[in-house]
Amino acid sequence: MAAKTKKGNESTKRKRIAAAEGEGERAKPKKLKLPSNPVNKGLKKPYKLSKHQHESKPKFQKSETDKAKVEQPSKKERRLHAKELAEARKKKRKRHYTLEQELASLWEKMRLRNITKENRSKLVSEALKKMQGKIPEIASSHVSSRVLQTCVKYCSQDERDVVYKELQPHFLTLACNTYAVHLLTKMLDNASKEQLAEFTSSLHGHVATLLRHMVGSLVIEHAYKLGNATQKQALLMELYSTELQLFKDLVTTKEGSLVDIISKLRLQKASVLRHMASVLQPILEKGILDHSIIHRAMIEYFSIADKSSAADVIQQLSGPIIVRMIGSKDGSRIGMLCIKHGSAKERKKIIKGLKDHIGNIARDRFGSMVLVCILSIVDDTKLITKVVLRQLETILMELILDKDGRRPLLQLLHPNCPRYFSPDDLASLSLSIPSLCTKGDSEIGSDLGKQTSSSEVGEAGEEDRSGTDEILAEPDSSEGPEESPHTIEGGKKDPFVRRQELLITSGLAKSLIDACGEKAGELLRSNFGKDVIYEVVILSIY
């Protein structure tokens, strides 16, 4: 029994070994049989390939040129190639590209400072001959417009007339172009009276549209500044009413103010107000407020506006945007009206908007009057001290010696003195908007469009100095001077208390006394400084 079991185990082992060997044989890859080779017939062993047979050529072999390393172009060569491609693209895109290159080379010569007049005139004539018949097309180019400006500046009057006639049919199109606008302004600077009148006439019906354009407004402003009173009035009247915009004969009226025009032409006030609002509102939204023609139109708008319309415009102008307006006469008046009729919050916005420009505003002829108005009306003396007076103290000596810079200081030392302020300045301080006036204001302030007569102001040399004691002390009713006819209303605080806080409490009076003490000799020899040192001496006495 045991022997049978042993034989069975051995047979089982053999089967397992045989099975394992069979699997191994199946796992091994079959050897490939070499094809029969007639050369190797009769050989018992399979033949081997010789060495030269192993080194057969690959299917895709590189040529000698491909194997050689290709040299990369240098930076200079790449730059020149890119420049050539750019030139080719410009020639395809620009019709007069070759002409522009020729004009640019001439322009580099004609604009030199050390060139003689004869040589320059030859270069200008040559350039104009090349441009003849193509001026309207190339005037919009960045390069050609500069060449044309130089040619218009130095050419003869006959040549200038030829350029003017060629450009005349295209004035309105060129007025809205970024580069051609400078050529038009140069043409107006060198235009004759007849040409300026023709140009102003060609703008009829398009003034309001161009004023709403950022570039076109520059042309209208330039024509307005160069024109005479009649031409200015013609440009302005288009902004008043649709009838005046359509019918050219109506703008020849000699009436100055809008109120007089409405009464003479029997226009409807409500219609005029709506038209002006539709013209001015887009201008306010775009911020095109640098032009004096717009300032004049706003002054006239305030003269007929109702309470809500005027208050809405004041609210829109309250802020840093007012800085762009106060450089002109009418613009400074608008600034003063905004301060006078604005709320405390709007006044605060205006003063904070002036923060970084106080020095330049104080030295400006019209801007200084805005500071005078602020010092005379605004009750928030802490804000004025922080924003205005602290910056004035840093340039105090410079302001004392400046004709316009000293006026805010003189307003605090001697308010509304005709010796230091012209009748026109005092009239500007007294202006008010009719619809926003209270009864008390209307008795004192003059309405817009009305000028104060010089007889009310009096001569500057006849000013009575008996009332200098009001600077530091309350004026005595028995000995006090007569009140100035140009009293500025608007603030609720007592004027004496306001001046005391701005002069004494802020420390400005001490700074003035120290500055005048250090530079007394220089101030006494100065035409403008002597007035300040005189007022400071009166201040220190009382």
Automatic annotation (TrEMBL):
<feature type="domain" description="PUM-HD">
    <location>
        <begin position="102"/>
        <end position="456"/>
    </location>
</feature>
<feature type="repeat" description="Pumilio">
    <location>
        <begin position="130"/>
        <end position="165"/>
    </location>
</feature>
<feature type="compositionally biased region" description="Basic residues">
    <location>
        <begin position="42"/>
        <end position="51"/>
    </location>
</feature>
<protein>
    <recommendedName>
        <fullName>PUM-HD domain-containing protein</fullName>
    </recommendedName>
</protein>
<dbReference type="InterPro" id="IPR011989">
    <property type="entry name" value="ARM-like"/>
</dbReference>
<feature type="region of interest" description="Disordered">
    <location>
        <begin position="444"/>
        <end position="492"/>
    </location>
</feature>
<dbReference type="Pfam" id="PF22493">
    <property type="entry name" value="PUF_NOP9"/>
</dbReference>
<dbReference type="InterPro" id="IPR040059">
    <property type="entry name" value="PUM3"/>
</dbReference>
<feature type="compositionally biased region" description="Basic and acidic residues">
    <location>
        <begin position="483"/>
        <end position="492"/>
    </location>
</feature>
<dbReference type="GO" id="GO:0006417">
    <property type="term" value="P:regulation of translation"/>
</dbReference>
<feature type="compositionally biased region" description="Acidic residues">
    <location>
        <begin position="471"/>
        <end position="482"/>
    </location>
</feature>
<feature type="repeat" description="Pumilio">
    <location>
        <begin position="166"/>
        <end position="201"/>
    </location>
</feature>
<dbReference type="InterPro" id="IPR001313">
    <property type="entry name" value="Pumilio_RNA-bd_rpt"/>
</dbReference>
<keyword id="KW-0694">RNA-binding</keyword>
<feature type="repeat" description="Pumilio">
    <location>
        <begin position="202"/>
        <end position="238"/>
    </location>
</feature>
<feature type="region of interest" description="Disordered">
    <location>
        <begin position="1"/>
        <end position="80"/>
    </location>
</feature>
<keyword id="KW-0810">Translation regulation</keyword>
<feature type="compositionally biased region" description="Basic and acidic residues">
    <location>
        <begin position="52"/>
        <end position="75"/>
    </location>
</feature>
<dbReference type="InterPro" id="IPR016024">
    <property type="entry name" value="ARM-type_fold"/>
</dbReference>
<dbReference type="GO" id="GO:0003723">
    <property type="term" value="F:RNA binding"/>
</dbReference>
<keyword id="KW-0677">Repeat</keyword>
<dbReference type="InterPro" id="IPR033133">
    <property type="entry name" value="PUM-HD"/>
</dbReference>
